[in-house]
Recover the amino acids of this structure.
C-alpha cells in the first residue's frame, strides 16, 4: 500500500493552499480530489473579496491560479474520491474505489455543497428549472422570470448575477432584512430588476416536466399563492461533504467538522480546513488561511510523532 507523510483531501481553496504550503515545505504530500480542482469557487462568477484582486477575479481564474501555484512548487494532485478514512495504529488509511492510501497525517478539506430545501417538487424538477447555481444556469433564463430563494451572500450575489439574463428576479426571503454583507445587500436593493418578497417562505415548486411556479407563503398574512416563474434558484446555505466521516471525527449538529485552533480534529493527526469546518464565517480567504495553518500543524505533528 502506498504511504505518504501527508494526504490532503479536497482541492478547493483550503486544500490547494494546504498543498501549496506543504509543497513549499518539501513535504511528502499528495492531494486527492474527486472532480476538478477549485471546489465551490468554480461556481462563483466574480470574487471581489480576495485581497489584492482589486478589480475582482472570476472564480474560474482564481481556482486555476491556485491550482497552478501549488503545481509550480511540485504538489502532486491525483483524481480519486475518498470514501472512507480510518486509523491504523500511527497511520490513517484512506479508501477510494481505486484502492487504499496510507498517510501519517491527513488534512480534510472536503468542502460543502448547496443545501436543499426539501420542498415538494424540488428534487423532481432539479435540472428542469430548479437550480442551485446561478452562475452555471443563469444564461438559460434570458428574458425570463426567475425566483431566487435565500437572503445570504450567495442569494444576494446570485440574484444580481441573474439580472444579467432574466428580465425579472424575485428574491424570496423569510425575514424582512437580508443576511448578506452590506455591499451585496445594497446591490440587491438598488437593482430595478429585483423585487424582494420579504417575510415569504417557499412551500413547493409547481410544474409538470418543468418549473411553472413557486408556491409561497406570506408569513405576515399567512396567505399562500403560486408565483409564476420559469426557474427556481435555491440559495439557502450549504451542507458539508462529511457524510463519509461520520463516526470518524467529531462534528457539530449540522455535520461540520469540529477542530481546535490548530485545525486538529478529534482524531490525532487528522486536521480540517475550509468550508467543511464548523465556524462562523465561510469565505475563500478563511479557507486559505485554515489550509496554511493545517499544513503547519501537520508538519509539527509529523515531527513529534513520526520522526
Ligand atoms: P447563509 O449565509 O447560511 O445564508 C442562507 C440564507 O438562506 C439565509 O438568508 C437564511 O435565512 C436562508 N434560509 C436558510 N434556511 C432556509 C429555509 N429553510 N427557508 C428559507 N430560507 C432559508 O448561506 P450562503 O449565503 O450560501 O453563504 C454560505 C457562506 O458562504 C457564508 O459564510 C457566506 O458569507 C459565504 N459566502 C460569501 C460570499 C462572499 O463573500 N462574496 C459569497 C457567497 C457565500 P436567515 O437569514 O433568516 O437565516
Amino acid at each position: 500500500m502506498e504511504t505518504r507523510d501527508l494526504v490532503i483531501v479536497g482541492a478547493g481553496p483550503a486544500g490547494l493552499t494546504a498543498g501549496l504550503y506543504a509543497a513549499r515545505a518539501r513535504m511528502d504530500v499528495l492531494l486527492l480530489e474527486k472532480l476538478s480542482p477549485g471546489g465551490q469557487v468554480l461556481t462563483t462568477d466574480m470574487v471581489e473579496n480576495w485581497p489584492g484582486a482589486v478589480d475582482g477575479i472570476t472564480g474560474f481564474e482564481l481556482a486555476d491560479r491556485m491550482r497552478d501555484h501549488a503545481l509550480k512548487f511540485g504538489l502532486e494532485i491525483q483524481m480519486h474520491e475518498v470514501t472512507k478514512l480510518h486509523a491504523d495504529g500511527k497511520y490513517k488509511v484512506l479508501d477510494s474505489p481505486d484502492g487504499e492510501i496510507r498517510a501519517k497525517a491527513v488534512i480534510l478539506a472536503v468542502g460543502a455543497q448547496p443545501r436543499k430545501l426539501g420542498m415538494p417538487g424540488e428534487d423532481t424538477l432539479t435540472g428542469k428549472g430548479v437550480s442551485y447555481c446561478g452562475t452555471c444556469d443563469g444564461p438559460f433564463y434570458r428574458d425570463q422570470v426567475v425566483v431566487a430563494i435565500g437572503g445570504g451572500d450567495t442569494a444576494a450575489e446570485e440574484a444580481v448575477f441573474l439580472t444579467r439574463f432574466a428580465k425579472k428576479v424575485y428574491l424570496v426571503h423569510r425575514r424582512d432584512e437580508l443576511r448578506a454583507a452590506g455591499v451585496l445587500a445594497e446591490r440587491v436593493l438598488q437593482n430595478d430588476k429585483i423585487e424582494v418578497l420579504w417575510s415569504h417562505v417557499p412551500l413547493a415548486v409547481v410544474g409538470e416536466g418543468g418549473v411553472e411556479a413557486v408556491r409561497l407563503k406570506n408569513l405576515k398574512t399567512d396567505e399562500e399563492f403560486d408565483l409564476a416563474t420559469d426557474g427556481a434558484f435555491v440559495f439557502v446555505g450549504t451542507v458539508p461533504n462529511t457524510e463519509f466521516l461520520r463516526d470518524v471525527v467529531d462534528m457539530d449538529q449540522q455535520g461540520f467538522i469540529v477542530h481546535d485552533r490548530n485545525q486538529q480534529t478529534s482524531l490525532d493527526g487528522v486536521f480540517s480546513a475550509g468550508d467543511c469546518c464548523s465556524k462562523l464565517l465561510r469565505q475563500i480567504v478563511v479557507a486559505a488561511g485554515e489550509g496554511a495553518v493545517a499544513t503547519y500543524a501537520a508538519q509539527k505533528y509529523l515531527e513529534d510523532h513520526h520522526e
User: Anything to note?
Assistant: The chain has a mean pLDDT of 96. The helical segments are 13-24, 59-72, 134-137, 153-162, 182-189, 284-305.
